Amino acid sequence: MKTLVDLRNHLFTALEGLADKSNPMEIDRAQAIANLGQTIINSAKVEIEHIKLGGKGSGFIQDGPPALPEKPGAPAGTTVIEQRPGVRVTRHSLK
Q1: Separation between Cα atoms, residue 4 and residue 9, nearest integer Å
Q2: pTM surpassing 0.90?
């Protein structure tokens, strides 16, 4: 099964091909890859909306890590979803 990770890998391979000075990828081919990548991303956005409405996904979009627990002392309803060095995604909801 192809996933979002596979798409990223293909797009980065195309980017590396463009940057290769000794054997660069043709611009037309790179543009075609980028256009197809955008089409796949757009279909993934539709899949996300379908999942939000209770539908089942195709597996293209992998489940992310579970939300981290609420931080002690944080406002009620605050949940840290993802934390990396220099970046923190927080979900706020009214309770």
Answers
A1: 9
A2: no
Report whether 81 contacts 41 (CB < 8 A): no
CA dihedral 53, 58, 60, 63 (to 10 degrees): 60
Q: What are residue 89's DSSP bridge partners?
A: 82
* Helix or strand run (H / E) with residue 67: none
| Residue 93 CA, distance from chain mean position | 23
Residue 52 or 93, more confident: 52
Give the Å distances, CA to CA, from 45 to 19, 41, 91: 29, 6, 20
